[in-house]
Amino acid sequence: MSCATQRVLRTVTDLSGPAGTLPMSSYNNSARFNEARRVAIFGGTHGNEMSGVTLVNLWVKNSAEIQRKRVETKPFITNPKAVEKCTRYVDTDLNRAFSPENLSAPEGDDLPYEVQRAQEINRIFGPKGSPEAYDVIFDLHNTTSNMGCTLILESSKDHFNLQMMNYIKKAIAPASCLVLLNEHPLLKYSTSRSIAKHPVGLEVGPQPQGVLRSNIFEAMRVILKHALDFIELFNEGMEFPPCTVEVFWVSERIDYPRDANGNIIAMVHPNLQDCDWEPLNPGDPMFQTFDGKTIHYQGPGTVYPTFINEAAYYEKQQAFVITRRETLVASAIRKA
Amino acid sequence: MEHISFPPLSRVAICGGTHGNEMSGVYMVREMQQKQKADQVGSVSITTVLSNPRAVDACRRYIDKDLNRCFTDDLLSAPVTDSTPYELRRAQELNAQLGPKGSQEAVDVVCDLHNTTANMGLCFIFYSLDWITMHIYKYIKSKITSAPVRAIQLDIPMSEAYSLESVGKHGCAIEVGPQPGGVVRADIFNLVKEAVDLTIEWLQGFNSGSTFEGGEVEVYNMVKSVDYPRDPTTNEITAAIHPELQDNDFKLLHPGDPMFLKFSGEAVKHEGEELYPFFVNECAYYEKKIACHLGKKFNITIPSVSVKKD
């Protein structure tokens, strides 16, 4: 039994209660968090991921939809030059640029554009790791993978985020919204949202780069509506009882088979293509060579692949990531 | 039935990467270059061409200018200076290699491989009424069952024909979708490979003396293009393709059918005559101010064809 489970079993009163109850009954050991007063919504971290670009531009012009009581929500285009060119990035991937080294590097025009941008964003919404940093940042992304609506979590111990994600999942049911947890020490990366105390990635697909699909756009819009509702309820004093959240925990990155020159020699197999989140068993087809041969998955057990055939990951040596399904337990939370 | 004879079609060019992020063609050409022991397959000599290598390297549609708009007679004969955009130069190189366009030296058939983000299945695109290309289309349509196979005719005189396939004596673009830019999907690649293999098979059959029966073929043509609703001051789009039109290429659009869904929630409807939409939500067409093309469907009677025997 994990430590988290032990902790909650000492205090749990009703695990199956609805998400959010009036503060009549109080849970022992509710984790206390400050009100989330400063929230940002980032779009265009990748300039060709159109849902976020379009939503943020819409809200910069008219922010009525994202207003909530007791919270300032700032929509922001993080990579305007990439948005202008409708490209993922200009010099380097902004969503990998928020490393401690980059953020503390001496300023200068000779730095890659995105590193300069990262420093600027850190000034406005950070500094990362300090009490002044924004409370929550939602970073809006699209993927060419068939991932549906996915929330990306960076820490299994962020009970505020876990409760938010539980709230969102229940609010959009029966529509699905899955949670991807990337806490892997080697595979984790320095995202733009990592500036905030509570970083939330929002990834919706499938959508080609440079294309705006109505269904994808509206799905992302609905998720943000529920996320902001949660923050408003939390800030008003609502207590959220302990809950469980199923997560897909990133464990490994799988590259394409390549030749000696680094060219790919096979494609994601038709049986695996579009099957994000579905079990991949040892022996299942994984890749197909250009002349029609099948390469099978040879791992030790069943895994759950995602980010299958994401356009931007060919250059990052990633055909898909492997995850394992876990259930996390979130403690009750209320505002401090 | 009418019957027409043609000289042997012995030289064919298979081109990929005319747009550097349309990956089926890029990998098809690479695969053919690696696997082909000889360039001669029976009676057909095959040239494989990576049309826009710099754009392929950058995994972008183009570097300076859309290569597939550079093949008009005027652009092919324009003088080249230091400031000439890369693709204009490259078009002239390709014209020298595979053409010259309109001359006796041009290759017999140019087959240019493309992908689209639109849900178009497999589409042949050609200028005017070329019996050879239409027979290849008819043949492939009869053999491929895993995806819809259709043809679009662009009614443009050859001098103004702007795309790569106009360089050959006979030519067509094979457009397959949906596939995002920068992605190679195995199902789409397998379809493209099947189409290329069948094209070569048809050419071999033709050269060896087979008669290909004519008949009626169904073709779409383009009547007009429709742009996205835009904000009059900023020119930014204010709507997305409506969910009922999205992915419904070639499904007849009636007056009153929704075409766009504005971000504010209202639907924008199709007005005017019944037409067939295609290239619905093609990524590269946002900058060309095209949300989709609209066209009509008609039948053409094509003659039977065979090779001219001296």
From TrEMBL, chain A:
Enzyme Commission (EC) number: 3.5.1.15
Domain of life: Eukaryota
Cofactor binding remark: Binds 1 zinc ion per subunit.
InterPro entries, sorted: AspA/AstE_fam, Aspartoacylase, AstE_AspA_cat, Aste_AspA_hybrid_dom
NCBIfam families for this protein: PRK02259.1
PANTHER family associated with the record: ASPARTOACYLASE
Full protein name: Aspartoacylase
UniProtKB/TrEMBL annotation, chain B:
Entry-linked SUPFAM superfamilies: Zn-dependent exopeptidases
Key words of the record: Cell membrane, Cytoplasm, Hydrolase, Membrane, Metal-binding, Zinc
Domain Succinylglutamate desuccinylase/Aspartoacylase catalytic: 10-196
GO cellular component: apical plasma membrane; cytosol
Domain of life, per lineage: Eukaryota
Catalytic activity, reaction form: an N-acyl-aromatic L-alpha-amino acid + H2O = an aromatic L-alpha-amino acid + a carboxylate; an N-acetyl-L-cysteine-S-conjugate + H2O = an S-substituted L-cysteine + acetate
InterPro entries: AspA/AstE_fam (IPR050178), Aspartoacylase (IPR016708), AstE_AspA_cat (IPR055438), Aste_AspA_hybrid_dom (IPR007036)
Entry's EC annotation: 3.5.1.114
HAMAP family xref list: Aspartoacylase
Family to which this protein belongs: Belongs to the AspA/AstE family. Aspartoacylase subfamily.
Protein name according to UniProt: N-acyl-aromatic-L-amino acid amidohydrolase
